[in-house]
Amino acid sequence: MPPSLTPAQASLVQTWIGDASPVADMSWNLDTVVLHVRTAAGERIVKAAGPKAHHHLLREIAAHTGATGPLVEAGRTSRMLHADSDAGVIVLEYQDGVLVEGSPAEYAADTYRQAGELLRLLHDQAARLDDELEERENAKALAWLERPHRVSSDIAAEARRVLRAAPARPVRIVPTHGDWHPRNWLIDQGRVRAIDFGRFAWRPPQTDLARMDARQWLIAPGLEAAFFDGYGDDPRDDTWNLEKLRQAVGTAVWAHQVGDEAFEAQGHRMLAAALTAF
After folding, report:
1. To pair with 106 at 20 to 30 A between CA atoms, which of 112, 154, 190, 248?
2. Full strand arrangement of the beta sheet holding 191-194
3. d(CA 207, CA 126)
4. What is the pLDDT of residues 192-212, one digit of tens each?
5. Where in the chain is the domain with CATH 3.90.1200.10?
6. pLDDT for 98-143, tens place per residue?
């Protein structure tokens, strides 16, 4: 069963939007409620986090407070209408469309051209150097490997070796989505829109390419060129292989912890492929 709103969250939502009738429960059973509702003022999305997902809701609030403006202005993502960080609940405008993942648009070149254009809007807002991010990210990946997982001992040992030996240097960071791939895109009458900023953070721009690189671009390589046609250039640098390794570790371990066997299997494939570069 999906989680439900707490009484405090429900009270806030009632105060913000009044009476609302349910349209659909879009929750992913991961300690976050996502509800499509209809109100007197129009359709809305209500997102509420439980204790395990509260930090994701905070990231989403940060994204909508300071980074999604260009996408909102272009009509390519929701505007946040209400938010309470302490209660862990937000209300967003509803966006028409269906998920790109699993639809015919998932392997259409124009989808990726548009996705590249949208991601560039997000990335181009600001940039700065971070002297410590690489060290933090390597440490985070090593910490993932200390949690329960089903990565083979040989592969885990090799991943640890690479991560511990990786040099840390300053990197350019920008506002990133953190989970940029077809499961977080909608398509409506041919227009691609972005959803779910729960992994928003300042990171190197190449980090937003890893999900596509591990799946859709492997299956249909022409989609990569279409994406960069929209994005404008290729932001990958000499830390790209290390980034793919870190994301592979996080995917394999996290998916095991939440019981997503298909995503866990993808993580294992990502790990094996990433290590070949070292």
Report:
1. 248
2. 98-99, 185-188, 191-194
3. 16
4. 999 999 999 999 999 999 999
5. 99-275
6. 999 999 999 999 999 999 999 999 999 999 999 999 999 999 999 9
Q: In CATH, which of 1.10.10.10, 3.40.190.10, 3.30.200.20, 3.30.1490.20 is domain 7-95?
A: 3.30.200.20
Half-sphere exposure of 174 (CA within 13 A, CB side): 18
Paired tokens of 22: 């349910």
> Which residue stretches of 181-239 are H helix?
210-214, 216-219, 222-231
Helix, strand, coil % in the chain, rounded to nearest 5: 50, 20, 30
How does residue 3 score in pLDDT terms, banded at 50, 70 and 90? low
Q: What's the pTM value of the predicted model, to 2 decimals?
A: 0.93
Delimiting residues of CATH 3.30.200.20 domain(s) in the chain: 7-95
Region for residue 127 given its phi and psi (left: phi exceeds 0; alpha: psi -120 to 50; beta: otherwise):
beta
How far is the C-alpha of 45 from the C-alpha of 102, rounded, in Å? 22
Do 255 and 269 contact (CB within 8 A), yes or no?
no
Cβ pair 19, 4 in contact under 8 A: no
Residue 26, both tokens: 């879009």
Average pLDDT, whole number, for the chain?
A: 95
Q: What are the tens digits of pLDDT across the range 164-195? A: 999 889 999 999 999 999 999 999 999 999 99
Instruction: Summarize pLDDT for 227-246 with one digit per residue, the tens.
Output: 999 999 999 999 999 999 99
User: How far is residue 192 CA from its own chain's centroid?
Assistant: 16
